[in-house]
Amino acid sequence: MPYTFPKMFPASSPSGVRARKVAPKRSRRASKAEKIDNRVSTFQQETGTDKNILVTLITVKPVKENARTDTVSSFVTLQDLLG
To answer: Cα–Cα distance between 49 and 72 in angstroms, integer?
Structure first.
């Protein structure tokens, strides 16, 4: 008996188009914050420093403050540099 694939979708929807299962989006920003934290801890381990590491973001545009901006210690914009 030949193998048959299990049915994941209904045969058809009211519009005649098959529904598609979509995987949930992963939060890229959360992983970026974790990546920055990992880099800071790796730097501290490799250099053997016990001093604080200040993460600075240099950007052209102003940054919107949100829950994820706690990872960055300070922001420098083009406006700050050109004054």
So the answer is: 19
Contacts of residue 22, Cβ cutoff 8 Å, sequence gap at least 6: none
Whether 19 maps to a domain, the answer reads: no
Work out the percent of the chain whose per-residue pLDDT is above 90: 29
In terms of C-beta distances under 8 Å and separation of at least 24 residues, what long-range contacts does 11-14 make, across chains too? none
Q: Is residue 74 part of a domain?
A: yes
> Which residue, chain included where needed, has tokens 């604080």?
52
- Residue 68 lies inside a defined structural domain of this protein: yes
Residues 61/44, Cβ–Cβ less than 8 Å: no
Structure tokens belonging to residue 17: 């188009």
Using the 8-state DSSP alphabet, how is residue 15 labeled? T
Distant-in-sequence, close-in-space partners of 79: CB < 8 Å, separation ≥ 6: 62
- Examine residue 59 and state whether it is found in any structural domain, yes or no: yes
pLDDT at 17 over 70: no
